[in-house]
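F.,

This is the one I mentioned.
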């Protein structure tokens, strides 16, 4: 099934699942992301690494409706405004400013903005190149979840503007939903998150 904008508008949930318990889960995530990762085996590469690479491919081709389908029904796209671990207290989304904190409804809104021209800072649109590497599996105590951490670099270019380069690490939390592997939470930790960023309206 290929989603269109009408499907996204019908599918978006209200932000009812972002509550104190959800923030508590994110704080546990931040503690676990500090753990020592293990290299992926062949099966894990075919499952998790392949899905992250597919996500990069869809974003670079602006296939946002298909990208949206990679995510679970109660998902999150989060870019903290703190530059790195281990000071995870500064990366507490409930008490600190974030660069992006998008639940499923907000992710749907973002796609509508990008498609309809409401996001004027994406006129003209950005061309991006996402590269991910150094995939490791992070231990977690949460049953049914898999945490994959990777390093990334993203080049972004808009006509008439200088090329921007973003780098850091990403954390993807995977779950199985209706028999399909889905991204439940995506954390993007920029190495320079605390500086002023010019036009981060595209998707990392």
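My design for it:
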């Amino acid at each position: 099934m290929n989603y269109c904008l009408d499907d996204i508008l019908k599918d978006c949930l209200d932000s009812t699942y972002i509550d104190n318990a959800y923030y508590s889960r994110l704080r546990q995530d931040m503690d676990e992301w500090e753990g020592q990762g293990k290299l992926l085996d062949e099966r894990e590469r075919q499952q998790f690494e392949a899905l992250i690479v597919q996500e990069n491919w869809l974003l670079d081709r602006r296939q946002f409706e298909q990208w949206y389908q990679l995510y679970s029904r109660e998902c999150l796209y989060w870019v903290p405004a703190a530059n790195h671990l281990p000071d995870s207290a500064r990366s507490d989304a409930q008490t600190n400013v974030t660069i992006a904190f998008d639940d499923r409804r907000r992710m749907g809104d973002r796609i509508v903005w990008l498609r309809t021209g409401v996001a004027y800072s994406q006129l003209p649109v950005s061309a991006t190149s996402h590269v991910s590497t150094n995939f490791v599996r992070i231990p977690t105590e949460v049953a049914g979840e898999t945490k994959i951490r990777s390093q990334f670099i993203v080049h972004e270019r808009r006509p008439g503007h200088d090329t921007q380069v973003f780098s850091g690490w990403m954390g993807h939390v995977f779950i199985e939903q209706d028999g399909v592997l889905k991204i439940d939470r995506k954390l993007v930790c920029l190495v320079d998150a605390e500086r002023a960023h010019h036009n981060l309206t595209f998707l990392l």
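The radius of gyration is 16 Å.

Talk soon.
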